[in-house]
UniProtKB/TrEMBL annotation:
This is PBP domain-containing protein. The keyword Membrane does not apply. It comes from Plasticicumulans lactativorans. Residues 29-144 form the PBP domain. Coiled coil: none annotated. Residues 1-20 form the signal peptide. Keywords: Signal. Pfam families: PBP_like_2.
Length: 156
């Protein structure tokens, strides 16, 4: 039991640690051109830092600046786009993110994300769910009624 608690603590901390920040040599988030972060039309932000994105997708930041609830939308853990998003934008593996979610869900501290199958479903769900945030491959957004959010590195 003690080992399990240690593993969960270490994994939870890795979601938020500064040295796990994704990024290329120029300091920009790696893969930003390959995967876009999208939000519902009502979301009052245009830019998020890497740490804000981590807090949102780790279910630890639960409301937008206007007080509206954040609703995280993801693809299944084994979906290639989800795995790439986790690695390039969050700096974690998808299974580590799932472990952190499960800890919060099973202790009653958070509700799990909405899981959709495929980018068409992601676009539809984010467009029609107030406060939603998700991700798609660049070029898949089209006229789906969602907005792209810029992800910036942390200021030094």
């Amino acid at each position: 039991m003690r080992n399990w608690i240690l593993v969960l603590t270490l994994l939870g901390g890795s979601l938020l640690s500064a040295h796990a920040a994704p990024g290329g040599a120029d300091g920009e988030p790696a893969g930003e051109s390959a995967i876009e972060v999208i939000v519902a039309p009502d979301v009052p932000v245009d830019t998020l830092t890497v740490n804000q994105l981590r807090l949102i997708f780790s279910l630890r930041l639960r409301s937008w600046p206007n007080g509206a609830p954040i609703r995280v939308v993801t693809e299944p853990d084994d979906a290639p786009v989800h795995q790439a998003f986790c690695r390039t934008h969050l700096g974690v593996y998808a299974n580590s993110l799932r472990i952190a979610w499960n800890r919060l869900i099973y202790t009653g501290l958070a509700a799990g994300p909405t899981v959709v199958n495929g980018e068409a479903a992601m676009l539809e769900r984010v467009a029609n769910l107030p406060g939603a945030i998700g991700y798609v491959r660049q070029g898949e957004r089209g006229d789906a009624g969602v907005r792209t959010v810029t992800v910036t590195p942390e200021p030094r």
